[in-house]
Predict the structure.
Amino acid sequence: MCGIVGLYLKKKSLHDKLGFYLSGMLINMSSRGPDSAGFAIYNNDSKNFKFSISIPKDFKFKNFEKSIKKEFNDIKIKVISDHIVVNTRTLPKNFISYLKNNFNEVNLIGYGKSIEVFKQVGNPKKIVENFNLNNFSGSHAVGHTRMATESAITLDGSHPYSTGQDECLVHNGSLSNHNNLRRNLLKKGIKFDSLNDTEVAAGYITSELSNNKSIKKALTNCLRDLDGFYTFIAGTIKGFAVLRDEIACKPAVIAENDDYVAIASEFQAIAHLPKINQAKIYEPDPGVVYTWGK
């Protein structure tokens, strides 16, 4: 049992409230996932790339900063808790190669022109405080609180998973054919950093999107190729999409009004949002893909 949340703000005037609203959503999902939490924030479509990096304890940040600024002349670095966000014009393939060859002790957990990803092990409320999520702004976000049922409580098991540029996935459920899918996706060049089934689903969606499929088509194909129980929220640079499998044993509720679209595993995660009483509130139908922002 885990908790997933998503928030899409329709009005730019509300973008500075994204982190504040999302904080309450994640904290209210603590009962479904007390072991770890994470979130992906989408904030602006810039010309530069942003790389979200989780660093270990006792990491020699000054050495990292000196080395990376020597290698790339336009680097800007933001440090938040035990995460670093690097901003640069450098192409992802070049930066990621440099990172792996020189600092393989760090974890690259997301990259793109909009996305920033953060996740930690521990109580969701504490994680929200560690990253000072209240102060984040942006157009949309997804989040996850995890209850570890099939693997250890580690960062590798924490969501969101990001396997492509400006892409991420959070998941409540379990996939039964992820090992076979992983082998097939590895042959297609998709890379994985964990043995988690959700990362395989994220990789599957990345593979589908790389074949010029829309996010709606990519998720529709999940119904054909992914076995198990799941509710997905898939984030892209433009918005996000939601899918429940055709059996739909994993809960989800959507609230939509003129200001936002909010999604969560349970209503309690969105009950605090403004104008919630003016929202259309409904459960997503099984086997149907819902998209916002395209």
In short: The CA atoms of residues 34 and 40 lie 18 Å apart. Residues 46-113 form a domain with the Alpha-Beta Plaits fold (CATH 3.30.70.100).
